[in-house]
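Bench notes, afternoon.
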Amino acid sequence: MTLKLYDLCGRDERLRFSPYCWRVRMALAHKGLAFETIAWRFEDKEALAFADYDKVPVLCDNDQVITDSFEIMRYLDKTYPESPVLGEGASYQRALFFKYFVERSVTPGLFRIVALDLLAAIHPDDRDYFRKTREARFGMPLEEVHNPEQGRQQLTQVLAPVRDQLRSSPFIDGDAPSGADYLLFGSMMWAYTVSLEALVEPNDPVEEWFKRMLTVHGGVAGNALTIRDLS
């Protein structure tokens, strides 16, 4: 039975931009697992009632239902152990630390770069929900959150250790991409998918790494629809 991934879509059903779903998509591609995606929107809570969950990603593997992107990645390692993504022991703990780093340091900077682009990219029926929930989270209107230059400055600072790592290896996890790469790439792909804004400076090692990530696993990310295709 093909794995099924419930995946956030935008104003065009083919536009898939969730950072957490992209983590899982890259992990599935890493393991060479066939899967199909089911388009889901923010307000379509009833569609996930079976999972007792109200957000994506949700992965269905026969009678197994797994929620939360990091838990899905861990499930894939345990159920399909060939080509581990997170690994076990110290490897897993490092990946867990990197997850927190991306979510708490990188993602806020990215959001400042693309906040209004995200609003334009999502389905019109979801925009009131998106604005209400995000403005409650940041304590200000999206128009005040949206500050691309400030977001890029924030990213320049927080990505300094990643930049240093990428000067000595093509991927964060070494000669080939793995869990840490997918965790950061998910967030970068989220911003890249919905916005034409530059995320980092030209010739930055992070930019070169991102370009490589678009080509891995048969170009699963590079072939995805982005806002550039809808402009």
